[in-house]
Amino acid sequence: MTAADAERVTGWTLKPEGMCRAELCVPMPASAVRGSEVDVAAFWTKLGGPVVASEVRDVWALGAPAEERNAALEGLQAPDFTLPDMNGKMVSLKDFRGKVVFLNFWATWCKPCEEEMPSMRALYEGLKGQPFEIVAVNLDKDSPPVAAFAKKYRINFIVLRDAGGKIKELYKTTGVPETFIIDQNGVIAEKVWGPRDWTRMDSLGMIFDLIKNGPKQKGAYVADKSAERK
Questions:
Q1: Is the pTM of the predicted complex or chain greater than 0.85?
Q2: Sequence-ordered list of residues with C-beta below 8 angstroms from that of 210, at least 6 positions apart, any chain
Q3: Among the options 20, 25, 110, 113, which is catalytic?
């Protein structure tokens, strides 16, 4: 399918970074993009959506992608994991129980991630002394670019390495950046697709609410989100 037709059908645009919607990009394997042609089935499957096509591939049915189905993650216990930090020390998500955790998935080759990183650093600096932690899970396969990136942006929060992508799959992410706000009991309070400016007050509602008022009942996060959509 041509890139133009793929955009019309899916709402995603082919760019050098992959298939993109607004500032969220999903990298595509070389085999799925040939010139201006896009393998829509491969792309939609990567998003976690079911695909059905006619035998001559002139009629397509694309099911709801994982992004929509996984909105139900809000209100569920965040899956625990253990990954190495930049120095090889093993760190587990459960180590931060009792704090609000900003769990971010990112990569050095991701331009929106690069643009988001300074505001994450500012957020971390601004909330020092509060029960709050940023855990940035990097998806690069090689470590040297990560170290250089961390030095360039003076990253002083925790960076963990998920070179094999296992934790990315565990959290059913579809692209980068994606962020999970996890409450003090280890429950996913909010999921954010794409980058945000974390210095803006309208980006910080959930974080500030959790720090000030503590965790809610699990079902309350879903109820709040449903009310926002109405």
A1: no
A2: 100, 181, 183, 184, 189
A3: 113
